Automatic annotation (TrEMBL):
Localization of this protein: Cell projection, Cilium, Flagellum
Keywords recorded for this protein, A-Z: Cell projection, Cilium, Flagellum, Repeat
GO cellular component, one term: motile cilium
Protein name per Swiss-Prot or TrEMBL: MORN repeat-containing protein 5
Domain of life: Eukaryota
Principal subcellular localization: other
Coiled coil ranges: none
Gene name of the encoded protein: Morn5
Length: 131
C-alpha cells in the first residue's frame, strides 16, 4: 500500500500530491485537476476534512460572501483584477486574450467541439472524447 509522501494519478488525469497512509490520502495534500484547478486539503482516511479550491486563474473559491459572477456583478475574474475593457472591446471569456476557436467549431469549456467529426479536443487540439 502507498505510504508516506507521494503522488498518484487518477484515470481522469487528476493528480494527487501529498501524504498517504495505508493506501489512502491522509494528511496534507492537493488534487491537481487537468483544467488547472487545485484543491488543497487536509485528508483523513481519504476524506477531506478542510480544504479550499483554487481555479486555474488564481481565483479562490469561498462558500460564504462569494462575490464572483453573482447576480449583482457579472464581470469575469480577469476583469475584476485588471479592470474593464473600453466600451468597443468585449471580453467574451475569462481568458484574455480568448482562445482562438477553429473554423466551424464551438468552445465547450474544456475544449472545442467539431460538429462534422462529433469529436471534442482540448485547447491544444488533443483528443478528449466523442460527443
Amino acid at each position: 500500500r502507498m505510504e508516506g509522501q507521494g503522488s498518484y494519478t487518477l484515470p481522469t488525469g487528476t493528480e494527487y500530491r501529498g501524504a498517504l497512509r495505508d493506501g489512502m490520502f491522509h494528511g496534507e495534500g492537493e488534487l491537481l485537476f487537468p483544467n488547472g484547478g487545485t484543491y488543497r486539503a487536509v485528508w483523513h482516511r481519504g476524506v477531506p476534512t478542510q480544504g479550499k479550491y483554487i481555479f486555474a486563474d488564481g481565483l479562490e473559491y469561498k462558500d460564504k460572501k462569494w462575490h464572483y459572477c453573482d447576480g449583482y456583478d457579472r464581470r469575469f475574474y480577469t476583469e475584476i483584477c485588471s479592470g474593464l475593457k473600453p466600451a468597443d472591446i468585449s471580453q467574451l471569456t475569462n481568458l484574455d486574450p480568448p482562445q482562438k476557436i477553429p473554423e466551424g467549431c464551438y468552445d465547450c469549456g474544456d475544449g472545442f467541439y467539431n460538429p462534422e467529426t462529433r469529436v471534442i479536443v482540448d485547447y491544444k487540439l488533443r483528443f478528449l472524447r466523442n460527443a
